[in-house]
Specification:
This protein is an alpha/beta fold and about 475 residues long. The protein has four domains: about 140 residues, Rossmann fold, CATH 3.40.50.1390; about 90 residues, Putative Large Serine Recombinase, Chain B, Domain 2 (Hect, E3 ligase catalytic domain fold, Alpha-Beta Complex); about 120 residues, no CATH class; about 55 residues. It is built from 15 helices and twelve strands. The strands form four sheets. The protein has a four-stranded parallel sheet with strand order 2-1-3-4, sandwiched between helices. Strands 7-11-12 form a three-stranded mixed sheet. Strands 8-9-10 form a three-stranded antiparallel sheet. The chain is elongated. About 5% of the residues have low confidence. The structure holds zinc ion (ZN). Zinc ion (ZN) binds next to loops.
Length: about 475
């Protein structure tokens, strides 16, 4: 940083911690000496006539407001004070001041020697500010409020690990173009007209030579983490809750992010018990027509021919704890073909009129709540509303907003999942899409009773040898 040529000195008289008065002249003298030592040029002194320390607002301190405005406008390019507690005793205000300082790039020094160009210096300052404030009550609460205040202004927490999509070292304020493009493309894959799986996104990102922030190849877990992160959607969080939109750019907007959350939630079906993944589309839907037990599906080789068989198991208890009767054993593929035809017909028959929720209603509702939050925020910032009232109202409105947004996102996903898209998923019989196809089956079929057709029949079974109970819609 170049040497400041237009320094403003801020002096304030008030009783200090030990009840002593620190005269403005003494403060000014020390500040001027510092500037001289540093080779800085003093332009103006901003004296504050006594105002009591900790509870005073910015509005009650005209000189403080003035020096801040001048620094912001570039009229001065440096601020010097005797010590941090001359500047402010409120940590929230100090945090705000340091924020302005970094944003507008003016120099700041105290005669006690904090150097704010280093993270350590800023930390020392913050701690000093906190200590100065300790005598005023509820310090931790105020730190929280200052954090919340930052978040309320759309400034996300700047700490933490590097995150995919953001330029390293930019405190999540700048996007990495190439990574952002991958995130957006992956989003289009997941929610496109022919939806792909997170596994597809993993393969796509890896094929582009991208690697995870931890350095290795992408995995389903690490890809999901990217889409699960609120930051990816430009959402500012406070204590784990989304409270507003970031003022900085993000790879996805809120609507896109919410839609992908709903999608990931809907995919998070618990893995079936036993041997891991299901391999057969209708296993779990088939019941023994004789005893009602769940039928198994298995590969079998009989007389040199390998085929799938579904059967009632009499030697092992099923998930329902019952032993099967063992009287039903059928070729699976015939059943599968019949049920496939039935599901495809049901999907094609679904008329668009069955769609619900006109999205406009929700949009209006969301807009209304957002407007109320903005109005409250404005009143609070202008000091026309007490902190407690504000945060109280805010948490109610946030809750309302969250509910509305979740409903809106669900509607979007639901719409993208109906009609032609469901048919497209249905027709994609990649093993990756099995669980989604099963989800579609579940919208059509509740369960299927399978009856015995006897052994060794040459003729194809009769359609009445299965009985389908449709899913209630
Ligand atoms: Zn049975």
């Amino acid at each position: 940083m170049a040497k400041p040529k237009r320094v403003g000195i801020y002096v304030r008289i008030s009783k200090d911690r030990r009840g002593q008065e620190l005269g403005v002249q003494r403060q000014e003298k020390a500040c001027r000496e510092l500037c001289e030592r540093m080779g800085w040029v003093v332009l103006k002194v901003y004296p504050e006539n006594d105002v009591s320390a900790s509870t005073t607002s910015k509005r009650g301190r005209p000189a403080y407001a003035e020096i801040l405005r001048d620094a912001r406008d570039g009229f001065i390019d440096g601020v010097v004070v005797h010590s941090v507690d001359r500047l402010t005793r409120r940590i929230s205000e100090l945090a705000g001041f340091l924020e302005e300082q970094r944003e507008h790039g003016f120099a700041f020094a105290t005669t006690e020697g904090e150097d704010t160009s280093t993270a350590n210096g800023r930390m020392v300052l913050t701690i000093k500010g906190a200590v100065a404030q300790q005598e005023s009550e509820r310090m931790s609460e105020r730190i929280n409020i200052s954090l919340l205040q930052r978040r309320e202004q759309g400034k996300p927490h700047a700490g933490g690990k590097r995150q995919f999509g953001f330029k390293e070292g930019s405190c999540f304020q700048e996007l990495d173009e190439a990574e952002t493009e991958l995130i957006r493309e992956g989003h289009r894959m997941l929610l496109g007209r022919t939806p792909r799986t997170p596994g597809d996104v993993v393969r796509f990102w890896n094929s582009r030579g991208s690697s995870s922030p931890q350095g290795g190849a992408w995995t389903i877990q690490s890809v999901k983490r990217v889409y699960r992160s609120e930051r990816t959607g430009g959402i500012v969080t406070y204590k784990g809750q989304g409270i507003g939109d970031s003022i900085y750019p993000a790879p996805l907007n809120r609507e896109q992010w919410e839609a992908v959350q709903t999608l990931l939630d809907s995919r998070a079906t618990p893995a079936p018990q036993g041997s891991g993944k299901r391999k057969h589309l209708y296993s779990g839907f088939l019941r023994c027509g004789n005893c009602g037990s769940a039928l198994r599906v298995q590969w079998a080789t009989i007389q040199g021919r390998t085929f799938r068989r579904t059967f009632c198991h009499s030697g092992q208890r099923g998930k329902d704890g019952r032993l099967g009767c063992g009287k039903v054993s059928r070729k699976y593929v015939w059943i599968e073909q019949r049920l496939n035809e039935m599901v495809a017909a049901a999907l094609n028959a679904r008329s668009p009129q069955q769609e619900e929720t006109p999205a406009e209603d929700l949009t209006d509702g969301i807009g209304l709540v957002e407007a109320r939050i903005r109005a409250f925020r404005g009143r609070w910032k202008d000091g026309r509303m007490a902190d407690e009232d504000y945060f109280d109202s805010l948490s109610h409105l946030r809750e309302e907003l969250r509910t509305l947004r979740t409903r809106a996102a669900t509607a979007v996903v639901r719409r993208s999942r109906t009609e032609s898209d469901a048919v497209a998923v249905w027709e994609d019989d990649d093993t990756d899409s099995l669980e989604r196809r099963r989800a579609i089956v579940a919208t059509v079929i509740d369960h299927v009773d399978v009856f015995s057709v006897g052994r060794g029949r040459r003729k194809p079974p009769d359609i009445t040898s299965i009985r389908v109970t449709p899913a209630s819609r």
